[in-house]
Model the fold of this input.
Amino acid sequence: MKHLHIIGGGPAGLGVAVAAKQRALPFTLYEASNQPGGNARTLSIAECLYDTGAHRFHDKNLETTTFIKGLLGDNLLSVTSPSVIYHNGRFIDFPLHLGSLIRSLSPKELAQIVVSLATSRFRQRSEKTSFKEVTTARYGKALANLFLLNYSEKLWGVPTENLSPEVSGGRLRGLTMRGLLKETFGWEKNLREHLDGSFYYPRMGIGMISERLSEFAGSNCIRLNSRVTRIIKNESKVTGIEVNGSEVIETDQLISTLPLSRILHLLDPKAPEEILATSSLLRFRHLLLVPIVIKRPYLTPNASVYFPDSSIPFTRLYESKNRGQEMAPPDRTCVVLELPCHSDDLAWKSATNQVAELGLDLIRTIFGVQSEEVIAYEVVRVPFAYPVLDLEYATHVEALLAYLSQFNNLHLAGRNGLFQYVHIHDLIGAGKKLIENILSDR
Ligand SMILES: Cc1cc2nc3c(=O)[nH]c(=O)nc-3n(C[C@H](O)[C@H](O)[C@H](O)COP(=O)(O)OP(=O)(O)OC[C@H]3O[C@@H](n4cnc5c(N)ncnc54)[C@H](O)[C@@H]3O)c2cc1C
Done:
């Protein structure tokens, strides 16, 4: 086996690197930034740590969990920290719980939920193709409108009738009204285990996983500050990559975790115009973070607070100390607000203090935080946070993958590389599978 070249040092690239190391395959990983971890990094502000978006480690794959436990040892904490939804000045348990709904919603809202649920039962059963249809049929119009549709529209930036049901990322699976009732009245336990407030989290932030993966893979095989600027190809294979606009390196096997539309634009000679046109139809959602450090030991008791109301521009607030206590000193806490954007949104282009002001206003209004309690804040960009799974995405992705499959030594991986709504544990597992496939082809 000749050398493997891996583009991107996020969890996907690191997962491939770890699997290559385990199988003693020589490799080099090229990462554009000065740090591995991609969108699963931990940043710092005023002595506090916070992640590039609210992260947790999902215990969904025994082999990957066992591996990560082995890598992190005591540093992988088992945390219990429930989340809430903020609606009309009240906090409602999330996952939804009937008792909390009854305490928090107005009689009118409750009546609307009951009526719309009852009528949704009598609607004709036809195949539901959009996120809006699936959630409205399952929860009734009122509940879906209150908590799922506005929220999803803010998150993905697309009307929910144009969103694929896959955007729920499997989180609604098993969450049925009947299940909700059974659980509320104690007839059935743990129906919504996957949504529970208990999860694994690394002591000093999600970035610890990326750091440990890169240590395992071997830092001598990871080239930081190395942006791949061109991918050189012939009819049937990729022959080389250009790094930082100058150095050209011959490639045998190339693994790319770059966003699918990006890799197509790096090809030399250029990909056909119709392929480039199709790639421009794929959209990615970016994320602005507003971390705010506050002179209070804690602001909330929650892992996350969700904001479904469309009057609030942010989708979520998370408090890193409620995931790992050591993420902030005892006298202060860091909360992070998430604002999803498209690349042509003014907020993304300017990412200025105006966005921070919106965040400061929000915590002032909801939690009564005074200006003198604010120690520090900033606005941080997280590009390519989510591949937007609209109703057409699968057709576009299929066409692009079919085109790229002619290059027999090119392998794609990653959340944006394969345009899939996947998570860290999936990517680590996929890295292993990819290396096994390359070896079996050999
Ligand atoms: C808000 C938010 C919350 C999340 N919560 C969770 C969670 O709770 N649990 C979970 O498991 N997952 C979570 N995720 C998902 C997880 O962060 C992503 O799945 C993961 O980061 C994707 O990894 P990746 O390697 O595919 O891509 P990325 O992390 O995007 O990494 C890509 C890497 O490629 C590099 N790169 C780009 N261009 C070049 C180039 N030309 N040359 C070289 N390098 C390049 C980038 O610098 C980057 O490091 C969350 C994501 C977000 C945004």
